[in-house]
Amino acid sequence: MTSALMAAAMTCKDWTTNGSGLVIHSKLADIMSLDSGSWFSVDYEGAHTVTLEKYLSTILEEGLNLQLELIEISGLEEPLVEATCAVVKKHCPIGENALFLSGFSERCMRLAAKQLPNVPRGLATAAMPRDSKARLEDADYQILHLQAGFVGEQDMERLCADGIEFAIATVNDPVEARYFLERGAQSVLSDRPDLFS
Length: 197
Known about the structure:
The chain contains nine helices and six strands. It is an alpha/beta fold.
């Protein structure tokens, strides 16, 4: 199974393409032939899924930094991380701020730390963990991603006091984004690249 398939193996093709069924039961060539743009906008009709290798190549050509999310598949964490990290090692120069890995799986973060120890890792959670500092050390990550609707001011104060870098997702309103940034969030994750334009 290729890293591109593994990264979305439990994803249902119906969500983002004109195909149907689980990605894990599909061949890469079949997935790449599907329309993966129409669901977003008619402007992107005919766009196709690309491999991780091609995606990294585009990121490098455009001079962008990348947060690469590892979408865990329970029972296949090891091959997912191994395949993804092998592609990253081969195709992505690892420099300051160029790349960091994220995901909801603490197991994936621990495995990624062994494969790519110099690449920062962000653990995504819905709500604020009660034991953020201990979990940070246990799962071997450096950044905590929290969902905006689950984070209160006391949570952010505690994270700042503990010296934990954190980001808030998914924030598409500039006023809300500034609220989180002013209270210590190092970044916000947004669907809007023009959020502060």
